[in-house]
Amino acid sequence: MIRKLIKIILAVFILFLLVWQFAPTLILAPYNAMSPVTTTSTNGLYIINANDNEFVEGKSDIKFKHVKLDGDYNSEGASVADINNDGLNDVVTGHYWYEAPDWKRHTIRTPTKEAVSIPRLSDHIKIFFESGGNQNIWSKAYPLAFFTFHADVNKDGWIDVIAVDITSAGFYWFENPKGVDGEWPQHLIMNYTRNESPVFMDLLGTGKPQVITGAAETDEASGKLYAVEFPDEGGYVIHTIEAANEGRNTGATLPTHGLGVGDINGDGLNDVIFGSGEGFFDKAGNPAPRQSFDEGGWYEQQIAADGTRSWKWHIIDPAVSFSQMLVMDINKDGRNDFMSGMGHGRGVFWFEQTGDNEWKRHVIDDTYTDAHADELADIDGDGVDDLVVGKTPLAHLGLKDPDEFGTPYLYWYKIVQSDDGKVRFERNLIDDSVGVGRQVTVTDINKDGLADVAVATRYGVHIFLQEP
User: Fold this and answer.
1) Angle at 292 between CA 286 and CA 295, to 5 degrees
2) Three-state SS across 61-72?
3) Quick one: pLDDT band at residue 175, thresholds 50, 70, 90?
4) pLDDT tens digit sequence for 272-295
5) Residue 308 CB-density burial (10 A; 0-12 exposed, 13-18 middle, 19+ buried)
6) CA–CA distance from 40 to each of 124, 253, 304, 322, 401 (Å)?
7) Rounded CA separation 275/254 (Å)
8) Which of 12, 121, 299, 415 could form a disulfide with 21 if both were Cys (CB 3.0 to 4.6 A apart)?
9) Separation of alpha carbons 288 and 280, rounded Å
């Protein structure tokens, strides 16, 4: 009887291991299923109601051709630039660049062994042995490369790659070797980056974009937001974004999700808008409850008569752990609003500015989770920007978020504004096989006058070329 029981237990254990290796969704699905409501990732407060959707299914006949450039998981973001000066746009991640038109892969830096596909059993075993028995799933589950941007940093006529790595890693620029294969020279800009939604936009009014991100000079330093400028004379200049009146959202871990740039108060100067963080310490380094960090907000840019730049902090509550926050006058009432998705929760939203820094939340679409990357772009060529957003598969390794194994959608929403101020979001599917990472790039990749899409996700590097 005991032997038979032992055999049954052993058989069940072996079956469990096999399922964990080959079908982990069967084990993890009960823990990350969709729920009728979603919560913030900071304080557990309910954010949306499941029946508030403002989208309708679109009827656009626009089609996209899916081109797979790489099946390896080596980045959470892809961008587009002419790397080899041949007049063609190439696709870039933080580890490789893919040469148009045949998309041959070239190395920028060799990916680390951290790019494994948790939560498979073999990956846990691999991490355990590679770490000498000190398993750390969270730090070993993602590739370093999360975001890439571009500028000729050293002004030699060749585009360089700017990489903002995974949270708690570094912020670098990689020097273009001018057509020579091999790893690119690497230059550290800042270490300890702390935001999963950095943007490359012109905040300072220079006519050229800056990288807006959260970081710290050292691991021990109190983190802030920064604008990193790449001036005409070459190199880079770091501008600190800090307000004398700012409150609790200032620790080294904050803000971890959600950044955007736009003129919030209509004074002609761009401001910085940000989501909440997930910190446990206040500005003085004292332990604080999570509720102290549920407030996102915006930094109002102010320029004095003598040219001195300063910032004033305002609360937006609840502005939770968002993806990129896209500023736009959505309902054409003369005030800028913003759109974003919950990076590790459920729903895509727009926040209507109803008065001076007064906000009303709208749910665009709550039918999927982990909308961790979004962008504004004119997909249909009508002169009005559309919302491009998608779901990040296994955004927290299948172990934390709702519905992490759900269909990895990539959508574009046509924003239709009526004369009475009402807004309609017409949802159109681009693809449902790879989703997005933490960054989605929308631009004319093949220079045919149509907007295309580039992504890097757990399923590799992909582009979607709009068909004429």
Assistant:
1) 135
2) CCCEEEEEEECC
3) very high
4) 998 876 543 344 444 333 333 446
5) exposed
6) 29, 16, 37, 10, 11
7) 9
8) 121
9) 5
